[in-house]
Structures are given as C-alpha cells and as structure tokens.
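About this split. The held-out portion is used to measure sequence recovery: a designer receives only the structure tokens and must propose an amino acid at every position. Recovery is the fraction of positions where the proposal matches the reference. Here is one held-out target exactly as it appears in the evaluation file.
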C-alpha cells in the first residue's frame, strides 16, 4: 500500500499544509485544583480543554510513546503533547479533505503508532509518515474499531464491531498485514469491545462476554449477571496478574480462582456506573466513576474528590506516565491529570486564616497564632476547642513558645507578653509589657532558654531575658545592630544568636558582638536556625541566606541558585533538605549543597520550588517573627501563610527521578521552517536562527529548566529557565554543535539532552576563492597603479633628462659659439692689435719712454689674448675635435697643474672612439668640474685622476686629500653646490652611476661609471 509523508515533508512544501498537518498551540492549563480523599490525602487535578489548545474536548485514548511524548486520540485528530504544547495531526495525507476522528492509539515495539479511526480505518505512523493499513474504499462504511492492544511479543491486536478480533502480522516481504483471527466456536459474539494483553502472554477479550486467548486455545468466562445489555466497559490487569473489570450496568468484578467475583455495590455508596479501573501497584486500585474517583485501600474504597465529570461526564481512558502521574481522558471535559499533591494547604475555619506563629505542644497538640485572631489548638488535622482561645481571642499574636513546665507564652503586637497555664487558662500567670520591665508591648520573638527562662525579642527594646522575676536587656546601647529584634535562639554552648532589622549579632558571656560585614550591610534578618553540624543560618528580607560556621560567614542569593532573596522560614527536614518560604512560594535545597556552596566546592545550588500547582492556596508565606515555621515530631513541615497553613511531609514525597527526554522540535531561519536533521546548513543570507526544543516531563512541565550551548559560539551554558527556544544572530561562519539539556521539577538533569550540528555558511565575500580573487584583483590593481605610476615617473624622468640633455646641449652649443667667437673674432682682433703694436714699437728708438709704454701695452694685449684663449678653452676645448678625449683630459690636467700647488697624479687610459661627441663632452665636463672643486674648495695637497675602460664602461674617479665635507651618499643635498649637482645630472644623462664619498678632514672621492653602449659614436655612412 502507498505511504504518505507527514512530518518528513520537504520544508519547501510545508506551507501547503497550513494547519492540515500540524497545529501547534501552547497549553496554559486551567488553575490546578486540590482535592482530598476521604482519608485526607491531597491530590492535584489539572485540566486541559479546547481553551488550552486541545482540538476537541473528547479524549478517547492515551499513550506515552517510547520517546516520552503523550499521544491523545480525539475527535479532532491525533494529538501530541509535551506538557506545554499541543501538536494536532488532523489530516493523514496532504490531499485529505476530511478530518479524522481518532478512537484509539497504541505503540508497538518498533516505536510505530497504530491509529484507529471512527470510520473503522487503521493507520501506522512511523518516522513522520502515515501508512494506511485498513482503508475505506470509495466511501463505503466499515465497522468501527473498538479496541486495540499490543501483546508481549509486539503484535498489535484489534477488536472491531461485527468483525471480531484481528491482528497485525509481519509478512515475509517485510510488509505488515491485518489478518482476521477467528474465535468461534469458543467466542460466539462477533463484536470485540475490549482487548487487553496480559504480562503472561495471554490476551483478554471483552464484549458481551469475557474470554482469555492463550495461544491457540481460548477460555471463556460467564458474567454473573450476564445478559445482552451487559457489556464489559473496561478491563485492567494489575502487577499481580489480577483482573479488574467494569460493566455497563455499574458493576465491578475481579477474577478469583478462575471465577469472576462481584464487588458489593454498598461499598461504593452510590449507584453511579464505573467507567474505568485505574490500577496502581498492589494493594491500591482506583476506580473511576462519574462522580469522581475511588481508591481501594485495605479492602475499602475511599473517594478522591469530585471534578467536572460529576455532572455526568464519562472517563474514556486512563494511563499512568513514566513519572507516576495519572492521565484521564473524558468524553466532554478534555484531558485531566491526577497526582499526589506535595502540599496540603489547611485553610482553617471561618475567616481567621492569617497564620503567624506556631509551636508544638507535646501534651496537647499544636498552638497556632493568628494575626489579630488569637490562638487556636490543632490536633490530628482538626481544630480543637480550648479555653485558651477565648482568653486571647482578640489578640494579634506574633510569637508563641512552650517552656519546660508546659506553660504557653503568647507574644502579641501591642498587648505585651502573656504566660499562662493551658490547664488553667482563665488565670493568666503573668503579663509583661512596657511598664513591667521588658520595655515594649510588641513581642516578635520567643525562644525558651535551655536552663530555664525565656528569651524575648521586641521591636523597640532589643533582646530581653526573663528568669523568674529577673529581667535583663541588651539593646542598641549594648551593641545590638538594632532594637527591632525578629529572631533569637540559644545554642548548646550558651551563645545567643540574634536577628535584627539591621543584621545579625551574637551574645556571648553577656557581651554583644555584631557579625562583621553582615551587620555593616544592614540586612534585615527574619529568622535564625541552628544546624546540628554547628552552622547558624540567618534568613533575611531581600539579602538572601546567610551562614555562620567556625567564624566564617557566607552569603547566598539568587545568583547562587536560590529561588528568592527573601527567606521568611528556614526549616531542616529529616532527610537532609532545607525548606524556605518567601512571598513567591516555598522551596527546598539540599543542605549538603548549601554547605558545599559555602565551602567553595560548587558554584550553584538547585532550588526546587512549589506553588499553587502543588497544592498551595497562596504562594505568600508570613515571616518576620519567631517561630515562623514548624517541624512536627512526625516530620511534617508547617508554613504560616495569609490563607492558613501550608503542610508537607518530605518523607512522604516521591521525588521525580525520571530524566526528562529532550527533543529539538523545530528550527526557523528568518522565520521560515527548516527540516530538523542531524546536520543543517544555514545559508549566509540568514540573519536570525531560532531553535525550539522541549523536554518531556509531565509532573510539572512549567518547572522544567533548560540549558543550551552553541559549542564554539557560547562560552558556557545559557540557562533559560522555562523558555523553550534559543535564538542566534550574527553567528560567525563555521560549524557548531547545538546542545540542549533539561532538568525536571526536582532538579534531575538529563545531561545527554539533544544535539544537532549547525553549519553557518560563509558569505561569498568570505570564501577562500572570493578572497583569492579579491587578492588577485587588488594585486592586479596595485600592479596597474604601480605600473602607471612607474610609467609616469619614467616619462617624467625621461622628460627631465631630455630637458637636462637639451639644456646641457644648448649650453655646450652656446659655449662652442662663444668659444668660437672669442677665438676667431676677439682672439684674432687681439692678435692683429698685438702685431701692429709690435710694428709700431719697431719704429721707436730703444729706451725711449714711448717704446717702453708701447711694450707695456703689447704685454697687456698678450695677457688678454691668453685669457681669451683660456676662456675659449674652458668653454669648448678645441682638443676634443683635434686630439680626442684622452689627450684633452691629459691637457686639462696639465693646465690645472700649472696653476695650482696641488700635486696631481694621473692614470688615464685611452678612451678615444668609444663615445659619441656629446658623451665625450659629458665625460670631459665631469672631470673638469671635479678638478675645479679640488682647486677651489678642497685645500688639498695631493689629488689623483683615473680614467679607465672596464667591461663596456668608462670609469672616472677623481680623489683628493682635502678637508672634505659631509657626504650626501649617492644623491646630492641642496647645500653641496652646483658643481656636484652638475656632475650628477651629466652622469644620469649618460645612463651611468655615480658615488660621492667624503668625510670631514678625510678627503673626497668622486666616481662615475659611464656605459659605452648607448653612447657609442654613430657609424659612418656607407660610401
């Protein structure tokens, strides 16, 4: 047969389902009701209806699956419940147009759910898929399925109207098939309304009769009042194998010695029919009826309250979950849960409910003080009339105590302190007040002294010790932090521990000693409790819990796991828990954990809190007086509240040790659902991821605590208390493990929890390939920018070099022109003038003044001619054109040597013909400028000029031993002068390199290396 996907549909198609596949609603239960059995046992009833998320108020079948969920068969579809949220499956396939009315649901060994419908159809639900097993064809009606059960071998059995019994069998092909099981002739009826598997492997079958199927055999039972109208309505098997059954005519039977024994109806005290039997471990059996529940104990039925079905509703199903809670399905009042109440809230009688102090009297009972309501006496859960009540009927009682003689001490607000003998209450033995030595009429704390007498705490007069007629006081003047005293207790060593409105103190050997920093902080202390281990506990108003032990003081608050920072009571039970009350409820913490916290062995404690859902009429407890709580000899703990007394017996509580299974239910990415898989890829475009989870603890689902951690993102566990989701935004790309763990109402953690892997995808701009492309692009752009810049620099350099070359060329041309004009024009004119002067002098007689003067003029003209020739030579040495570069350099050195005392050594190689004309001029000018610097600036005594031809280069070096200067390195600083700058510029034009080396008083070296290639003469044109 074809199968259909439900939960396992691809997310892209999830929107098509809308509410067809699943409708998830948060269930906010109606206020819990506390009911009592006729034996006085408190029970809590919780109810869920359509107002709380159920699709329909009839619940015909209940099963808790192996994964921990509770599944409900309703007329509105199949429902899954986690204690907080309902998920409804009202369609089997996406194309269904009809909503299925479910009548029964069971789970088989392979975790499949088998679902029967009102139309006689059968489906198997497994791995998120529904598979039809018995399907109605073409709308033809089929007999309804009335019952289902799974036997010890894992086979599912089905009881149907008119078609009898069938079972689901696994075929050789691996498929499941429904096979009819014929019961005739042992079972004459064709309708099977009850199918119940027994631990011994047999199968019980009920209808208008009762039968037991054992292998191939069948045994029938005759109902004692059998008839066509008598139908077996329910059948249960307890742990001893005992059979309990009810019939439609209100009878209850059990099997005894293979016979059915009827229970007398007189035991039920009414005529209502029984609809279900709820079997506890023996010897307790609960029978559900229309007017409530009955509990069978020691052969007697006790009533367990009344609920909504008292108006005639019928219990259709009952089931006990893994934590011991009873779940009841009703015909019209939805889903009910029954559990033993941790607390019994005794509201007392009438309007006198505001309880203050309480003290236990071993002879008489428990005295209860009321706020402006006097004193009551309680015994065995009842208020006992006592003459004391009349004596103090109008008093506002704030503290009570019993001394060693059995006298009752009553501390009041405004009426002072009364001491009376309960056996003679009319005669008050003594009254203390502001006028009788204790200094106050407001008595807030009473505590018997171990050697006799009474410790008294007042609101304005500090601590008072009454010993017979002797009165002794300690107040602010004696060192108390405050005169407003709320608690006072004497320990076995005679130390008196005092709690005031400004902090704690201790009185030792008559001296008051405030307890350090706690007093300095001014924290109001509400109660003081002595621990048998030697610790002293102080409950405060807003400051948390304080512990003093061996001189060390510790303070605990909600930051350390306390439920509240107000501690109105601190009671230590007989099993090792400390119980505390506040304005928000009552809670307990293991005393061992508190001590470990104080010793630094743990960082937090686990607080188990109780509220109205646990049997309390109010969450507020009274405090600020002593005694503000009571532990009875039988172990019961009593807490005073504005609405009576909250009572519990820790020894009778059944701790919830079941670790809650944790399930990751849904995942949303930017609000869109994502299929829950072990590994999930989150797109880089997603900004927000929400993960919904749950924990399957049904005793107190609202008290389930969660911790989650996205390993690698969260540094530690995130405590979300009762929230059932986690939200993540802006998560760094990578793979993380999401873990969630949970604790039940008693603080038992499921450390395994649930986990999935989340991979947050890198955005494309963060991927390796994109980064590589970006780097390559940046490198390319950088290289392009650098190339452009280099090209610009090169062009600029070439332009500058070309400008310099042209400038120098222009200078050389101008020098050549000027030199030529000086040599050819002015020089010739001077020669002519000189010759004529010599001719004129020839005609003059020797020794005459005229001839001497004329010869002086000849000498002047000769000198001028030499100057003109020297200037012309410097501007353009004619030797370059006539003699070549080598001889020109030598001639220049000789000319310099003639006019300077510097001794110049030379080593000049022949370099003629290696360079073109312009390059030769450049080399000549480099040497000329270098020699000019030697002559004019160096103050040297010795110099050298070297010209060499080396591996395609002409090397020039001019060195002296002069005064030198601060060398500029390879470049030239602005203050060196135009000579070196000119040399540098010429070397660059010739494509060479240069180096200036100099130091103060260390001489100077100017070196240049000029490449021949690129500067060689142009070849002569072909003839």
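Reference sequence for scoring:
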């Amino acid at each position: 047969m074809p199968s259909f996907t439900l939960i396992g549909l691809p997310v892209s198609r999830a929107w098509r389902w809308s509410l067809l596949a699943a409708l998830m609603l948060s269930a906010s239960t109606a206020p819990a009701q506390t009911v009592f059995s006729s034996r006085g046992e408190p029970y809590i009833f919780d109810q869920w209806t359509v107002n709380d998320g159920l699709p329909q108020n009839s619940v015909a079948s209940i099963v808790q699956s192996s994964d921990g969920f509770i599944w409900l068969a309703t007329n509105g579809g199949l429902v899954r419940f986690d204690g907080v949220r309902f998920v409804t499956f009202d369609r089997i396939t996406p194309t269904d147009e009809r909503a299925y009315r479910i009548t029964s649901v069971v789970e088989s060994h392979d975790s499949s759910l088998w679902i029967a419908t009102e139309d006689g159809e059968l489906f198997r639900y497994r791995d998120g898929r529904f598979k039809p097993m018995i399907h109605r064809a073409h709308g033809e009606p089929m007999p309804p399925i009335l019952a289902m059960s799974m036997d010890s071998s894992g086979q599912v059995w089905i009881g149907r109207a008119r078609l009898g019994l069938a079972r689901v069998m696994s075929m050789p092909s691996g498929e499941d098939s429904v096979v009819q099981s014929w019961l005739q002739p042992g079972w004459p009826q064709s309708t099977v309304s009850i199918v119940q598997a027994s631990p011994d492997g047999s199968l019980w079958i009920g209808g208008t009769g009762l039968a037991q199927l054992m292998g191939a055999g069948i045994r029938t039972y005759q109902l004692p009042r059998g008839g066509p109208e008598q139908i077996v309505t329910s059948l249960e098997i307890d742990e001893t194998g005992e059979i309990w059954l009810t019939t439609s005519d209100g009878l209850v039977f059990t099997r005894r010695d293979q016979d059915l024994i009827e229970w007398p109806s007189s035991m039920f005290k009414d005529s209502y029919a029984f609809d279900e039997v709820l079997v506890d471990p023996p010897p307790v059996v609960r029978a559900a009826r229309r007017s409530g529940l009955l509990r069978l104990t020691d052969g007697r039925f006790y009533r367990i309250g009344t609920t909504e079905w008292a108006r005639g509703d019928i219990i259709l199903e009952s089931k006990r979950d893994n934590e011991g809670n009873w779940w009841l399905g009703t015909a019209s009042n939805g889903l009910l849960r029954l559990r033993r109440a941790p607390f019994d809230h005794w509201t007392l009688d009438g309007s006198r409910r505001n309880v203050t102090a309480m003290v236990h009297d071993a002879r008489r009972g428990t005295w209860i003080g009321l706020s402006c309501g006097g004193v009551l006496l309680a015994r065995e859960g009842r208020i006992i009339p006592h003459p004391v009540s009349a004596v103090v009927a109008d008093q506002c009682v704030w503290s009570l105590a019993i001394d060693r003689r059995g006298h009752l001490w009553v501390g009041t607000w405004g009426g002072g302190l009364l001491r009376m003998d309960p056996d003679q209450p009319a005669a008050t033995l003594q009254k203390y007040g502001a006028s009788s030595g204790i200094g106050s009429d407001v008595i807030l704390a009473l505590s018997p002294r171990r050697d006799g007498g009474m410790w008294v705490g007042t609101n304005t007069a500090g601590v008072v010790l009454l010993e017979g007629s002797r009165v002794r006081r300690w107040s602010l003047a004696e060192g108390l932090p405050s005169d407003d005293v709320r608690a006072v207790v004497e320990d076995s060593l005679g130390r008196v521990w005092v709690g005031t409105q400004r902090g704690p103190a201790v009185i030792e050997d008559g001296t008051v000693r405030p307890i350090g920093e706690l007093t300095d902080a001014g924290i109001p202390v509400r109660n003081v409790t002595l621990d048998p281990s030697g610790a002293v506990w102080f409950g405060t108003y807003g400051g948390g819990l304080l512990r003093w032990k061996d001189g060390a003081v510790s303070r605990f608050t909600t930051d350390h796991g306390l439920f509240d920072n107000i501690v109105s009571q601190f009671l230590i039970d007989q099993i090792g828990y400390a119980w505390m009350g506040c304005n928000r409820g009552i809670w307990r913490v293991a005393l061992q954990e508190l001590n470990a916290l104080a010793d630094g062995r743990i960082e937090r404690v686990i607080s188990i809190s109780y509220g109205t859902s646990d049997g309390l009429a109010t969450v507020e407890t009274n405090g600020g007086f002593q005694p503000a709580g009571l532990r009875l000899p039988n172990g019961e703990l009593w807490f005073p509240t504005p609405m009576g007394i909250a009572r519990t017996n820790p020894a009778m509580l059944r701790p919830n040790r079941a670790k809650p299974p944790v399930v990751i239910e849904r995942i949303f990415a930017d609000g869109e659902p994502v299929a829950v898989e072990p590994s999930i890829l989150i797109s880089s475009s997603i900004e927000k991821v929400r993960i919904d989870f749950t924990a399957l603890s049904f005793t107190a689902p609202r008290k389930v605590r969660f911790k989650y951690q996205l390993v690698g993102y969260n540094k530690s566990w995130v405590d979300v208390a009762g929230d059932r989701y986690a939200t993540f935004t802006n998560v760094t790309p990578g793979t993380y493990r999401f873990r969630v763990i949970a604790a039940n109402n008693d603080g038992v953690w499921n450390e395994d929890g649930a986990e999935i892997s989340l991979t947050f995808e890198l955005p494309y701009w963060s991927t390796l390939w994109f980064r590589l492309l970006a780097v390559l692009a940046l490198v390319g752009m950088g290289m392009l920018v650098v190339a452009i810049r280099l090209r610009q620099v090169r062009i600029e350099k070439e332009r500058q070099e070309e400008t310099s070359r042209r400038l120098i060329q222009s200078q050389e041309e101008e020098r050549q022109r000027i030199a030529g004009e000086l040599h050819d024009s002015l020089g010739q004119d001077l020669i002519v003038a000189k010759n004529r002067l010599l001719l004129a002098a020839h005609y003059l007689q020797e020794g005459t003044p005229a001839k001497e003067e004329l010869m002086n003029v000849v000498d002047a003209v000769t000198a001028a001619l030499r100057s003109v020739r020297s200037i012309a030579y410097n501007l353009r040495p004619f030797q370059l054109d006539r003699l070549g570069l080598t001889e020109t350099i030598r001639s220049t050195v000789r000319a310099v040597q003639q006019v300077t005392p510097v001794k110049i050594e030379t080593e000049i190689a022949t370099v003629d013909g290696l360079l073109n004309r312009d390059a030769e001029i450049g080399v000549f000018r480099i040497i000329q400028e270098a020699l000019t610097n030697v002559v004019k600036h160096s103050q040297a005594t010795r110099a050298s000029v070297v010209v060499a031809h080396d591996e395609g280069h002409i090397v020039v070096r001019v060195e002296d031993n002069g005064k030198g200067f601060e060398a500029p390195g390879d470049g030239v600083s602005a203050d060196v002068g135009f000579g070196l700058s000119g040399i540098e510029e010429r070397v660059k034009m010739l494509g060479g390199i240069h180096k200036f080396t100099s130091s103060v008083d260390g001489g100077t070296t100017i070196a240049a290396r000029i490449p021949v290639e690129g500067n060689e003469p142009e070849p002569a044109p072909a003839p």
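Annotator remark: The radius of gyration is 57 Å.
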